[in-house]
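Predict the 3D structure for this chain.
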Amino acid sequence: MTRKKIFISSVQNEFQQERRMIADYIRQDALLSIYFEPFLFEELPAQDKSAQEAYLEQAAHSDVYLLLMGEQYGYQDAAGISPTEREYDIATANHAYRIAFIKDVSRRDDKEDVFKSRIDKAVIRHTFRSYEELQSGVYASLVEYMLSRQLLRQGPFDASIHPEARIDDLDKDKIRWFVGVAREVRQFPLTYSEDNISQILHSLHLITEDGRVKNAALLLFAKDVQKWFVSATIKCAHFYGTKMTKPIASMQIYGGTVFEQVDMAVSFVMSRIDQRVGERIHSNQVDVTPELPAQAVREAIVNAVVHRDYTSTGSVQVMLFKDRLEIWNPGKLPQGMTIDKLRNLHSSRPVNPTLANPVYLTGYIEQMGTGTTDIIELCEKSGLRTPEFHQDEDFLIRIWRPENAGASLSTDHQTAHETDHQTAHEIDHMSEPIKRLIIAIKGDTKTREEIMNIMQLNHRENFRLTYLIPALKTGYIAMLYPDNPRRKGQAYYLTQKGLDVLKTE
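Done. Predicted structure below.
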């Protein structure tokens, strides 16, 4: 099969790095590399023709014309037309499949603005603000091209259309939440209203031009995700020792959207590990630090959710042992990716890029391509052993706990008695507001608004000073995102200390 030629066009200097990265991405992706061969200015061999003539000839023979637009119009010939616009005209005249990616910028050259207005209604166009969004858009657009040309009978799972799902199967409140968080975290340009839900979904490549729903949209926003994908869950288990043996300390299966699954799985882990208590030096308050860095735990779980094989009947598994945390996800590493590459900075090639981009926009992924290196760095900074990565039938991330971790799970009766006695003593001296807060949160991760609604409280500052801060300082609760305390959508969960209080109620 002859691969389709993609002509990547832009003002040369403005998007030089992006064009190179997109070309490399297409050539390295397991699916796109089979069907496409990108063309770059820089790779054109020396020849008798002028550079401009050669570029136009390549544009004329391209199957897909991919245009990047930003601030600059670029060099103009004697007629006042830029090479980029000439290339666009040639591709149009030769009926190439045209896609424009327009960068969200504060200003444009006047002629670039005119050029943009000209193509607005003539080509498939998308807006991007970062390379991550550009990569996701390119992937989704090329998959749609392959499907429209019947090069594929069935697309990649996340980008595939679900034949039975409709936009009405998506939860408006979940979309509203997403837009609010994405605007806060990544300056997502669209605002929420029921009138522009389709526009929001289309900008994220979650629906087709005619409104058909893709699998990624269901995983992100469905009213009932497991109605569509039974195995799209996270199974969490906490073991007393270092092996998967009974009795099991606790076990939960979490469904819902990928966001909800991640939040609950992170809460499961963080509430069951030990908390390091600092010293009282300048006040009666002490710092409480979890034994495992919360960001590393979150990155590992998000990695499993975003990169898993959703065609598998298996679930993501999160298993907490006395000496380690293991996160398993069904599936293999992308083509060309190795365990060794994961230990160093590497290009971003998510297995499910249509799913990964909205997750990135909410801040659940800090930066594309850095997840595994961030996990390593965070653990080593915390004085922990270097995390391990393994690929067998499934993919495994192993994060080591500190030595002597998990002592609170000792089966020794005397230890249990002493722990219960200490807990009872602390509860007797606990303030009533903290008790109420613990009961309101129970075992689930909750936002400030959710907790206040349960407690029927309206005054935010009084809640913060009387309930939230004291519970955080004394180590009964913890933030889901401790590295970003003021993050929109910040949530709170009970530590093991807080869970112990519930046992006495």
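Residues 410-429 have pLDDT under 50 and may be disordered.
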